[in-house]
Specification:
Blueprint lengths: L1 H9 L4 H17 L3 H9 L8 E3 L2 E3 L3 E3 L10 H5 L5 E7 L12 E4 L4 E4 L8 H8 L7 E5 L10 H12 L5 E5 L14 H26 L8 E5 L5 H14 L3 E4 L19 E4 L3 H14 L6 E4 L5 H10 L3 E4 L1 H6 L2 H12 L2
Parallel strand pairs: 3-4, 3-13, 4-7, 7-8, 8-9, 9-10, 10-12, 12-13
Antiparallel strand pairs: 1-2, 5-6, 6-11
Helix pairs in contact: 6-7, 7-8, 8-9, 9-10, 10-12
Length: 350
């Protein structure tokens, strides 16, 4: 019903406006008594075989919602009803910012893709924290970045601010230095600045864990920190990533963010600047996952994201070395039934 009836209506309007309209609709219908339970019964699959324990966290199933969809943590409880095993909010920055000028979100219908140049538009980390206090047992990842006006040589402080603010309210962190829509951000993927950034966050992580253990009388427990990388990195750069993960002792990698490549696209909107997501990214993101898994000898968990539009796409990423997968553009094009279909396919292969 989604692809034949709902999607054609939604796709008839401006992508960013319809995103906000859809959020309002989902929030409204979930306030109707019994609707949340009905949605959960329609899309959730409760099966122990789907559970995954990755970097010390227990995921009800391995299919998550990627960052960028619920930037400000406004709808994570309602979105979890569609069967996701975890929700990643953000990217959040210390201060609220408008992001890049509109129009900044484009559908590429012929390519089943999206181009965005949103620019980390969000209401700031402290607003999100207030909403996260209302979490109804949803496993949450916190994706953090820097404000546009913050120069790269001061970027570490922005990540520290977000880390401190979110620490008690998310289950894991994602360091986003790979979005193509904040000027100069991808320069932080270079080995020296990236190592410094991750080392600082790990030091803070250790301190927070020790403080928490002192209060609760437990052993130090750190929050998993993951690095989200671009699909446009060379093999040499990916080898650097493996070394950086080892040296910094972070928990893992999310592969991949959007791409700046436009190879093979059919849509007229391919000329728009920004990050490309969707089907054109399927092959490259899987290649990056496989390369990292093989070259590191599976030394760390990988969350696979990029171009998952079918259950087979998800299985391919899991077989390439991903421990978990995330949806974004595929969720928009294929609808919420995709989450259940992937989990059913995983059970078939179990």
């Amino acid at each position: 019903m989604y692809k034949s009836l709902i999607r054609p209506i939604l796709f008839g309007f401006d992508p960013e406006k319809i995103h906000h309209f859809s959020f309002s609709c989902i929030r409204f219908i979930n306030k109707i008594p019994g609707v949340s339970s009905a949605i959960r019964s329609m899309y959730h699959i409760d099966d122990k075989r789907l559970e995954r324990e990755i970097f010390g966290l227990k995921f009800k199933n391995p299919v998550g919602l990627a960052a960028g969809f619920d930037k400000d943590a406004k709808l994570y409880n309602e979105l979890s009803n569609f069967g996701f095993g975890f929700i990643e909010i953000g990217t959040l920055t210390p201060k609220a910012q408008e992001g890049n000028p509109k129009k900044r979100l484009f559908r590429l219908l012929e390519d089943s893709a999206i181009v965005n140049r949103m620019g980390f538009n969000n209401g700031g980390v402290l607003e999100a924290v207030e909403r996260l206090k209302k979490n109804n047992d949803v496993l949450i990842g916190g994706n953090i970045g820097k404000n546009k006006v913050t120069p790269n040589d001061e970027a570490v402080k922005d990540y520290e601010i977000c880390f401190e603010a979110l620490y008690d309210h998310v289950d894991y962190f994602v360091v986003n230095v790979s979005s193509p829509n904040t000027p100069g951000l991808r320069e932080l993927q270079d080995k020296e600045p990236l190592t410094k950034l991750l080392m600082v966050l790990q030091e803070l992580n250790i301190k927070k864990g020790v403080t928490l253990s002192d209060v609760e009388g437990q052993k130090p427990k750190q929050k998993p920190i993951l690095l989200k990388i671009a699909p446009d990195l060379t093999n040499e750069q990916l080898l650097d990533i493996i070394e950086i993960v080892k040296d910094s002792k972070i928990a893992g990698v999310i592969a991949t963010n959007t791409t700046i490549s436009r190879d093979g696209l059919q849509s007229i909107n391919k000329i728009e600047a920004g990050g490309l997501s969707g089907k054109p990214l399927t092959k490259r993101s899987t290649e990056v996952i496989r390369f990292l898994a093989e070259k590191s000898n599976k030394a760390f968990p990988i969350i696979g994201v990029g171009g998952i539009h079918t259950p087979e796409d998800a299985i391919e990423k899991l077989e390439a070395g991903a421990s978990l997968v995330q949806l974004y553009t595929g969720f928009i094009y294929e609808g919420p039934a995709l989450v259940k279909a992937i989990n059913k396919k995983i059970l078939e292969n179990a």
